Amino acid sequence: MKIAVSAASGRLGHAIISELITITEIENIVAIVRDPAKLKIGQIETRVADYQSLEEMDAALQGIDTLIIISAPVAEGGDRLQLHRNVINAAVSAGVGKLIYTSLISNGGEASTLFSDFASINRRTEEYVKGSGLKWIIARNGLYLDLDVVQIRAAADADGLSQNTVMKGAAVISLFPSLLTPTLDWLPMTAAMAKYSILLAPVTPKPNLLRALTKSMV
Fold it and tell me: Is 142 domain-assigned?
């Protein structure tokens, strides 16, 4: 089974690939990047493609069974929704079996905050994923607390969400062929409950079944 990680040269992409290496054979992993020089993990099959190019993404996704789509970075600007649609359309064209889209947790209250536009793009991307005709998983995460040293310390005390949690979760769910069409909200949670969620998911793949997967789930 070929598992591709798009935008693999970023922080989350590196983290997901590093986790995948520990739980599947390295020949099963494909890194899709714009600049191969920025990928710091060796011995990984690397394919060059940009979210802006439907043709490049189509070529890069040939032979891929599962694609983990990392959201386009906000800092780089551009039409993030169209970038996401390009990747999804390319996945359809290339015959990818399943999509895993990294999204953002929401309770609807963000409409009145500075995160409104950002969250809206993620929600609209989710709807596009659902309408693609492909098998899918939407993995929603909160804001990474480990990007700020002060918040790292607070997160450790409060068992807050970290990028480490998200990368482990994305890596693990890519290996479950029977886990289909849930929307996953990554939240702090006990290791025991996370493990039960993993066991139950292939049996009852209902939306929002897995409320969280934690860094200790594997």
Answer: yes
pLDDT, tens digit (0-9, with 9 covering 90-100), for 7-40: 999 988 999 999 999 999 999 999 999 999 999 9
How far, CA to CA in Å, does 185 sit from each of 39, 66, 81, 121, 190?
A: 28, 20, 21, 17, 14
| CA-based nearest residue to 96, from 133, 51, 47 | 133
Structural element, H or E, at residue 6: strand 3-6
Domain of 13 in residue numbering reads as: 3-200
User: Does some domain include residue 57?
Assistant: yes
CATH number at 14 reads 3.40.50.720
Q: Is 48 within a domain?
A: yes
- Tally of structural domains, the chain: 1
Mean pLDDT for 56-78 is 88
Per-residue HEC secondary structure of 38-84 comes to: HCCCCCCEEEECCCCCHHHHHHHCCCCCEEEECCCCHHHCCCHHHHH
pTM: 0.69
Residue 135 belongs to a domain: yes
Q: What angle do CA 44, 45, 50 make, to 5 degrees?
A: 115
Half-sphere exposure of 140 (CA within 13 A, CB side): 20
